[in-house]
Design brief:
This protein is mainly α and 79 residues long. The chain has a domain of 39 residues. The chain is 52% helix and 0% strand. It is built from 3 helices and no strands. Helix 2 runs antiparallel to helix 3. The radius of gyration is 24 Å and the shape is elongated. 6% of the residues are buried. The mean pLDDT is 82.
Length: 79
């Protein structure tokens, strides 16, 4: 992981993960709870590495480059 990944591409969800991680870490230290500390570490890891639960853009739908060729169809009226 390079420094460029850490300082670029900050969006709303990444900021929310960072703030949630810091808040939960503060609460975990204050209440001396290990499980809350693990959750905080998980959120902070996601914010720092810009990953989600599925990895970087793991839940996004891939774009398709396939273009279907259409042919003109002629119809004949039957009486």
């Amino acid at each position: 992981m390079n420094m460029q990944t850490l300082i670029s591409n900050w969006h709303l969800m990444r900021i929310i993960r960072l703030v949630a991680g810091i808040f939960i870490a503060y609460q975990a230290i204050q209440n001396q709870e290990v499980f809350s500390g693990l959750i905080a570490a998980f959120f902070l890891f996601q914010a720092i590495t810009n990953t989600g639960c599925c990895g970087s853009n793991g839940c996004s739908v891939p774009t398709s480059t396939y273009k279907e060729k259409t042919q003109e169809v002629s119809f004949e009226e039957i009486k």
